Amino acid sequence: MNWTQFLFRLAEPVVPPRFVIKRLLLLIPVLFGVASVVFAILHLAPGDPAVIIAGQRASAEQLEQIRVELGLRRPLWEQYLTFLWDAARFDFGQSYSISRGNSVRSVISDRLPITLELAIYGQAAGILLGLPLGIISAVKQDSLTDHVTRIGALTGISVPIFWSGPLLILLFSTYLDVFPTSGRIASTLFLPDTWTLFGRELPLTGMITVDTILLGNTEAFLSAAHHLFLPAVVIGVYSTALISRMMRSSMLEVIRQDYIRTARAKGQGAKITLMKHGFRNALIPVVTVIGIQFGTLLGGAVLTETVFGINGMGLTIVTAIGVSDYPVVQGTVLTFALLFTLVNLFVDVTYSYLDPRIQQ
Amino acid sequence: MSTDTETRGTLGRLRASPFLADLLTNRLAVVGLTIILGMAAVAIYARVTYDLGALAGSQLGTEIADRAPPGWLGPAPANQQLFGTDAAARDIYKRSLYGAWLALKFGTITVGTSTTVGVGLGIIAAYYGDVTDNVIMRTMDVLLAFPPLLLALALVAIFPRDLGLWRAVVALVLVYTPRFARVVRGAALKVLEDEYVDATVALGATDPRVLVRHILPNTLAPITVQSTLNFGLAIIDLAALSFLGFGAQAGTPSWGLMLSRGVENGLLTGEWWLSFFPGLFLAITVLGFNLLGDGMRDALDPRMRDAID
């Protein structure tokens, strides 16, 4: 394919819009169900929100006033419908305690980028290392490389993040003192809230490695990368292990197919056959797994943030559940579910691009 | 044929089953099985030998030193312990061993319950189809739309704190059941296409009979693999919930809780043994289940792999 052909190919829609729209419509009942589950969970949860807000010493009148303000005295179905309407507008009210007086939306917009940044680096490392490792392992099946990769990957998925994290901190931070134990940037560095592009002030992304680049602050970028390194390694190792396992077994199945033998028989080189016919077909099931394991990765981010003291969505949800800050729990859980669902939608679309038969 | 099998005894019967034979020639699966059996022996030993109250309670004020390193490091005073002691002067060796009992016990309950419920729902959905299928599977879809650990965290919030590990078990059962239901439904739908099911129905077999006698046995293989792989996951997730403070109650010698104390008390001071030993037990146990699960998957028909992942 020459460059013009390539550009034409880019211009045409890779996946029919009808397919994408159909998938989006299918999301509505699922998200409706997800919101209902979250509503049910937090209505079953123990503890009186009024007491959580006002404290044990508040008078009965004060508590009653808060209950009326929160709408807790209205019939359940009315509360449910209000919740659905608010959730659809992404409005979860104000935090009870962990960020008192601030809207849940602002808590999420502050902390989601932190978690996303961690997840993206972890996932990127997993894809960049996991795919080649899986392919090499499959092509050299039963070689020493294969055995080492397989056992390494099995160990990688068996070692929990809340063990590998502390051990890395003990080794590299406490004993060798080459990485910081926690936090996102050196405490002596302060970042402004905005950056300037062509004389216009723009908000920062909240992803610290991106922001420091936008600000052109090399020292801050290096400090941020230094802080992010160990947490990203912890998530990245797990993700690499998962992806390389899937890629290996998928590639093993594909290279036994007839079309691979045909391509080789007509004289095509081994490497070209592998990349042109093997890789794309082997990638199909792996793409699905990458989508599903993104959920596990978000769980991994919760644990990583707890171990490394990073104040992202994960640490927020753990703290919020601990102190019964229900609006924050509702908002963060729904955001995580929405994110996970959207990633899987994206995966479905990619899948249909890789395997057009799915579109029918 | 039957007499032949009898004369060859157990080994003969094992050889007669291609699945078991494949499994036993898979070195990694045998290692996995050995690890699991070893850990089960440790668990039973710890359960029989140690008193839970003594492991949970603080031993401050006794001769045992607070946060003492493992006894084999440096000049060891007589009262030092094999794996050292924690911030409440408790013996990490005994607690790690007892952790095996808690992990395997609650892991078995979690995986057992979610397998049973998931298998039931999956088979019913596949067999009755239509509305039943839709109601069951769409509910499962909603549960599957949450990232697993986050759904578990939200569910754990419902239950009172004094339920300890039981609330983690209930939460994880709700997280895992949909996965089993989905796998089983897929496998059952394949079985239902076979003509012998139609034949059985035509002969007048009742619904429960068809489900239990004909469909269930044919879905057992993928279920067994899924359960084994899920066992490793369940043990990690139970520990993770305890680690985050939503599982085992304070003082319980669960690996997750011990790791959380290790992060709280040992990271900055470099007291590595608080984290190292409980985590090592946890990782080895999980590795055992993953090795066995992988071996089982390889021993099965490779075409089954799609149904399992």
UniProtKB/TrEMBL annotation, chain A:
One of the protein's GO biological processes: transmembrane transport
Subcellular location: Cell membrane
CDD domains associated with the record: TM_PBP2 (cd06261)
InterPro entries: BPD_transp_1_N, MetI-like, MetI-like_sf
Domain ABC transmembrane type-1: 112-351
Topology of this chain in the membrane: Multi-pass membrane protein
PANTHER family: DIPEPTIDE TRANSPORT SYSTEM PERMEASE PROTEIN DPPB-RELATED
Family: Belongs to the binding-protein-dependent transport system permease family.
Protein name: Dipeptide ABC transporter permease
Native organism taxonomy: Archaea, Methanobacteriati, Methanobacteriota, Stenosarchaea group, Halobacteria
Automatic annotation (TrEMBL), chain B:
One Gene Ontology CC term in the entry: plasma membrane
GO biological process, one term: transmembrane transport
Transmembrane segments: 28-48, 106-128, 140-159, 165-181, 231-252, 272-293
Every ABC transmembrane type-1 domain range: 100-293
Membrane topology annotation: Multi-pass membrane protein
Short name of any one Pfam family annotated for the protein: BPD_transp_1
Keyword tags: Cell membrane, Membrane, Transmembrane, Transmembrane helix, Transport
Designated name of the protein: Dipeptide transport system permease dppC
